[in-house]
Specification:
about 240 residues, alpha+beta, Jelly Rolls, 8-stranded mixed sheet, 4-stranded antiparallel sheet, 16 strands, about 20% helix, globular
Length: about 240
């Protein structure tokens, strides 16, 4: 904190991030049908200090060990995808590192309860989290709660459907809410046989009040459980 001649110490207040620090992209091509593995391609982008730290860790590895480390990274996030190819690129000037992956996998279309129609849940559409704002006795229950600040991430998922999407439908509402110091946004569309889902989470402040915690706890839980899914036509039947 810098010295302020009139008031002594002045707190530095960081601005809310205006550019995503992490971007997660996933494209699934299921145009060949739901009963065969979908072609998959994914990308992860990290920016800023996180990107530099990741690069420093990878840079000390041999090419073979680096390849294995990157494959393990992808497998941890998409254990249902058989990985064929991985790559990465670090841009020192932009302080940005990009990881890419190609493969194929079973998307896990499951029969919806009470119907013979199958559906695919998008994990990228998970917007919030299940909070636990309860404090133990003896603690200051009026103290504010910390926010992971500054933080800004985006998720993008694209699914190419069979038969140009004929008979498929998209279930799930769009989101634009500010809860517990974070702005949550989600938009999804089904057009010309292609589903697109975009989600962003951007912290706005370093902390929020205990009153805000009480007000938003149920709302965050409800938002966390409200996912987007693709519903297949009856002609695909149950599995």
């Amino acid at each position: 904190m810098p010295l302020d001649g009139a008031a002594g110490l002045t707190q530095l207040i960081q601005a809310a991030p205006d550019k995503p620090q992490e971007i997660r992209n996933l494209k699934l091509d299921a145009s060949g049908g739901l009963n065969v593995p979908a072609m998959a391609s994914a990308e992860r982008i990290y920016r800023g200090d996180a990107a530099v730290m990741i690069w420093q860790g990878l840079n000390v590895l041999t090419a073979a060990d680096r390849d294995q480390a990157i494959r393990r990274f992808w497998q941890q996030h998409y254990d249902w995808i058989k990985i064929d190819k991985v790559s990465f690129n670090f841009d020192d000037a932009r302080r940005e590192i990009r990881f890419a992956m190609e493969g194929k996998g079973n998307m896990g279309w499951q029969t919806a309860a009470g119907t013979t129609r199958r559906r695919y849940w998008s994990n990228a559409s998970v917007t919030a989290y299940r909070p636990d704002f309860v404090r133990e006795d003896g603690s200051d229950k009026s103290a504010p709660f910390a926010v992971n600040f500054p933080s800004y991430s985006e998720d993008h998922e694209t699914v190419v459907l069979p038969n140009k999407g004929d008979g498929f439908s998209l279930v799930g509402k769009d989101v634009d809410q500010k809860l517990a110091g974070v702005a949550y946004r989600r938009a999804s569309t089904l057009s010309n046989g292609v589903v697109t889902i975009a989600v962003s989470k951007r912290s706005l402040v370093p902390e929020f009040s205990a009153a805000e915690a009480k007000r938003t706890e149920v709302l965050l839980r409800e938002l966390n459980e409200d996912m987007v899914y693709i519903l297949a036509p009856v002609t695909y039947g149950s599995r």
